[in-house]
Amino acid sequence: MQQVPVTVFRKHIPEYLGKVRQGEGLSLTSRGREVARLVPPEDTRLSAREQLQALRAHCRVDDVVSPIDTEWEAERADT
């Protein structure tokens, strides 16, 4: 993580934000001490895909788009 003094960051905000967009993290410092970190956001779509794959190990995802007021084949077999 690159350390950048706050005064330098203020003068070059677009440049440093471009680096963050590319995936780099920045540590903002004041008088040599870290005061903040600027990191890119997590890709929530990737996280959601990983969560779904983990669920598939324990659950079965089937037809979730059919209307709920339709009679199921299992209900017809019982009668």
Task: Give the tags.
79 residues; alpha+beta; YefM-like fold; three-stranded mixed β-sheet; 4 helices; rod-shaped; Antitoxin_Phd/YefM; YefM-like_sf; Antitoxin
General description of the model:
It comes from Trichlorobacter thiogenes. Antitoxin component of a type II toxin-antitoxin (TA) system. This is Antitoxin. Strands 1-2-3 form a three-stranded mixed sheet. β2 and β3 form a beta hairpin. The protein starts with a strand and ends with a helix. It has helices at 6-11, 13-21, 44-56, 73-78, and strands at residues 2-5, 26-30, 33-38. The protein is built from four helices and three strands. It has 79 residues and is an alpha+beta fold. The chain has a single domain, classed as YefM-like domain (YefM-like fold, 3-Layer(aba) Sandwich).
How would you briefly describe this protein structure?
With 79 residues, this protein is of the alpha+beta class. It contains four helices and three strands, in the order βααββαα.
What is the CATH fold-level name? YefM-like fold
User: Kindly, what is the distance between the CA atoms of the first and last residues, rounded to a whole number of angstroms?
Assistant: 67 Å
- Name the structural class: alpha+beta
Task: Output the radius of gyration.
Answer: 25 Å
**N-to-C SSE string, H for helix and E for strand:** EHHEEHH
Spatial order of strands in the largest sheet: 1-2-3
* Annotation, overall tally of beta strands: 3
CATH C-level class is: Alpha Beta
Largest sheet: 3 strands, mixed
Arithmetic mean of pLDDT: 83
Strand content: 15-25%
CATH A-level architecture: 3-Layer(aba) Sandwich
Overall morphology? rod-shaped
CATH superfamily: YefM-like domain
Number of domains: 1
Note the total helix count: 4
Which residues sit in consecutive blocks of at least 5 with pLDDT less than 50?
none
Helical percentage: 40-55%
